[in-house]
Design brief:
The complex is a heterodimer of chains A (108) and B (115). Helices cover 0% and strands 46% of the residues of chain A. With 108 residues, chain A is mainly β. In chain A, the strands form 2 sheets. Chain A has a 5-stranded mixed β-sheet with strand order 1-9-8-3-4, with no helix packed on it. Chain A has a 4-stranded antiparallel β-sheet with strand order 2-7-6-5, with no helix packed on it. Chain A is globular and about 40 Å long. Chain B starts with a strand and ends with a strand. In chain B, strands 2, 4, 5, 6, 9, 10 and 11 form a 7-stranded mixed β-sheet that branches. A 4-stranded antiparallel β-sheet of chain B has the order 1-3-8-7, with no helix packed on it. Classes of the chains: A mainly beta (108), B mainly beta (115). Chains A and B meet through β4 of A and β4, β5, β9 and β10 of B.
Chain lengths: 108, 115
């Protein structure tokens, strides 16, 4: 199983771009990188998924370099409501194992 | 995205009683469902993985006789906490996915308090 490593916490201010990097050195060939957002007392919410290069949707972008040993979630112009914990996971495994996640705090 | 409904959202029970939590995939068939528990300010800890029609696979350290998981259909899985104790108080979350390499969708979680 691919183990993921993320920074424990990050701080930002409203309107800034936030980049959260995840390391997954032993990612398998068939694994997809998926990011989730979790607010307190709620289940995680799917944000974005990718295999390589760049993926963009209405809320975020995901950058995955050619070697796929890391990935970066980019949140453009964060707001206070983006304060949450963000998790990256490697999919296409039998289990979904969560790492520590990154606790993002957005300040006014 | 797909919807996973978890019920109840919160429950209080007395020590020694059993509590059942339901997890339903409302608009897709889930070949695999996962059950997690989460303590305050900690990450989700996988308890077990269940595939429809077969026995659940429990993670090391999770008592299968205490946490009964049934995945009776492609849209329903249940977790029963038997003979609950205060230390079982936690936030329980289920997840469902159609197949490998597809994203998993999560329920809203169940806050269990054992008094």
């Amino acid at each position: 199983l691919a183990k993921t490593t993320q920074p424990i916490s990050m701080d930002s201010y409203e309107g800034q771009e936030v980049n959260i990097t995840c390391s997954h050195n032993n990612i398998a060939t068939n694994d997809y990188i998926t990011w989730y957002q979790q607010f307190p007392s709620q289940g995680p919410r799917f944000i974005i998924q990718g295999y390589k290069t760049k993926v963009t949707n209405e809320v975020a972008s995901l950058f995955i370099p050619a070697d796929r040993k890391s990935s970066t979630l980019s949140l453009p112009r964060v707001s206070l409501s983006d304060t949450a914990v963000y998790y990256c996971l490697a999919l296409n495994t039998d289990k979904l194992i969560f790492g520590t996640g990154t606790r993002l705090q957005v300040f006014p | 995205g797909a919807v996973v409904s978890q019920h109840p959202s919160r429950v209080i029970c007395k020590s020694g009683t059993s509590v059942k939590i339901e997890c339903r995939s409302l608009d897709f068939q889930a070949t695999t469902m996962f059950w997690y528990r989460q303590f305050p300010k900690q990450s989700l800890m996988l308890m077990a993985t269940s595939n429809e029609g077969s026995k659940a696979t429990y993670e090391q350290g999770v008592e299968k006789d205490k946490f009964l998981i049934n995945h009776a259909s492609l849209t329903l899985s249940t977790l029963t906490v038997t003979s609950a104790h205060p230390e079982d108080s936690s936030f329980y979350i289920c997840s469902a996915r159609r197949s490998l390499n597809t994203e998993a969708f999560f329920g809203q979680g169940t806050r269990l308090t054992v008094v």
